[in-house]
Design brief:
three-stranded antiparallel β-sheet, alpha+beta, 37% helix, 2 domains, Aspartate Aminotransferase, domain 1, binds pyridoxal-5'-phosphate
């Protein structure tokens, strides 16, 4: 495959020192299995599965063929008031892999969107049951929850938040990196200091895992 690139200026890269990259581009032009190759022919071991996006390895023929066939057969179905059988089949398969009380799936396009959706669900759920005051979110220091506004507000990565403090969701509490039990004890103390009504603690760790302390 050939590319027609005359300048690197137009593209702002995420989480990258743009000027350094553009002075010394580390451009990958081929990937296969666990390896990638840069434009000079240098081989790179992909130790993180392309940041967890290609866990089955690069350039798998069976995946490429499945995508190709799907694109020819039914490339995109708008999902407001319409559906297609594939997403229902996938939802059922995901539920079979999960513990019994996880029995519905809401699909998103990324981890960032998943976290923002989870925040919306939590806040809306508390409002619907008449607990609109339960709007404080709990997170860990150094936690990463993606790049959308909700996830950035909740993430404990100060550099990702420090330009956004006025706009960020204002009620998060950050815990340092200790064990779950010491988190819970510390959290109870913090929450009691904030508002005595909050004697029940629900926290969300990672995507979809709920820890409840009585
Ligand atoms: C816990 C967690 N939340 C959110 C994200 C963001 O996911 P994405 O890059 O797909 O938006 C990640 C990505 O590593 C993650 O590990």
């Amino acid at each position: 495959m050939s590319y027609d690139v005359n300048s690197l200026e137009a593209h702002w890269m995420p989480f990258t020192a743009n000027r350094d990259f553009k002075d010394n581009p580390r451009m990958v032009v081929k990937s296969e299995g666990m390896y990638m190759w840069d434009y000079k022919g240098g081989q790179i071991i992909d130790g993180s599965s392309a940041l967890f996006c290609t866990p089955a390895g690069h350039a798998r023929r069976e995946i490429a063929e499945a995508v190709y066939n799907q694109m020819l057969n039914n490339d995109y179905t708008p999902h407001f008031q319409l559906g297609h059988p594939g997403s229902f089949e996938l939802a059922e398969r995901v539920c079979r892999l999960l513990p019994d009380d996880f029995n519905h799936v809401f699909f998103t396009n990324s981890g960032s969107e998943s976290i923002d959706t989870a925040i919306k669900v939590i806040l809306a759920y508390q409002r619907a049951r008449g607990h609109a005051q339960r709007n404080r979110l709990v997170s860990r220091e150094r936690a990463y929850h993606g790049v959308n506004m909700g996830g950035v507000s909740l993430a404990g990565m100060v550099k990702n938040r420090d330009q956004l403090m006025d706009a960020a969701y204002g009620e998060s509490i950050f815990l340092d990196d200790r064990t779950i039990d010491s988190h819970i004890k510390r959290l109870r103390r913090k929450i009691r200091a904030l508002d005595k009504e909050f004697d029940n603690i629900e926290t969300l760790y990672g995507i979809g895992y709920k820890y409840r302390a009585s």
